[in-house]
Amino acid sequence: MTEEEAVAIVEQEREALRIPPRMGVSSAEKAIVEFMKDRSRAGRVENRVAWIVDLADAVGFVRVHVDDRSGEILEVLRTV
Which of 34, 43, 44, 59 is 20 to 30 Å from the Cα of 74, by its Cα? Predict the structure, then answer.
């Protein structure tokens, strides 16, 4: 998957992910991230190659992890 494809997935899912329209993509990079199916319970942690897409505005930011192979949204972290 390319950077453009990862950003396009985030943009397509923007409403479902509750990302405000005012937030613009500030960066995207490929990295290895830790993934757990349910972080509220103890369980197995997997390392996954993912695109980390950051969106920001004056109020805060949202970081979305997109699996490099499947395009699955692995995690959404936010400060807003």
Answer: 59
Of 34, 27, 45, nearest to 67 by C-alpha is 34
Of 73, 60, 53, the residue nearest 20 (C-alpha): 60
The mean pLDDT of 14-24, rounded to a whole number, is: 95
Pure H helices in 1-80: 3-12
- In whole angstroms, give the CA distance from residue 66 to residue 71: 6
Sign of the Cα pseudo-torsion (79, 26, 35, 10, in order) = positive
Q: Who's near 33: CB < 8 A, 6+ residues apart? A: 47, 48, 50, 52, 65, 74, 75
pLDDT of residue 38: 67
Taking only the tens place, the pLDDT of each residue in 29-40 is: 999 999 987 666
- Identify the DSSP state of 73: E
